[in-house]
Design a protein that fits this description.
Strands 1-3-4-5-2 form a 5-stranded antiparallel sheet, with helices on one face. It has helices at about 30-40, 50-55, 65-80, and strands at about 20-25, 85-95, 100-115, 115-125, 130-140. It has a domain at about 10-30 and about 65-140: Thiol Ester Dehydrase, Chain A (Roll), CATH 3.10.129.10. The protein contains 3 helices and 5 strands, in the order βαααββββ. By secondary structure, the protein is of the alpha+beta class.
Length: about 140
Amino acid sequence: MSAPTGKSAVVLSDVRVGDSLPELSIPLTASLIVAGALASRDFTPVHHDRSAAQATGLQDVFMNILTTNGLVGRYITDWTGPDAVIRNVAIKLGAPNLPGDTLTFSGTVASREGDELRIEIKGKNSWGDHVTGTVRVVISS
């Protein structure tokens, strides 16, 4: 998806309940995982130290929830455009995100009240659902 131009990427009057958002695929690298943990000040070793992650039974470092939350926000605002306001993010983690995999987001407009949308999102990788949840967002008309 190209970067949004103009006021918003979607026109609120064109949005209908049941509409699907375009998918967004993000290659998962060790750099992304480690940088996300450090940027969010999460110094838990499993997010930046392979041997610590392996001690928990996984083969490599894995993404923290704050990075996942940021990527959920990116997914929504890539679709809505820069003038949207995220009101609420409610997510649940599932399968871990590991380097070498791909995280693919999908979403559906679940409800609309005025200029506020509730979007159901899912982020999947090769293990299954990494993140599921809902995002409430207001789009300026």
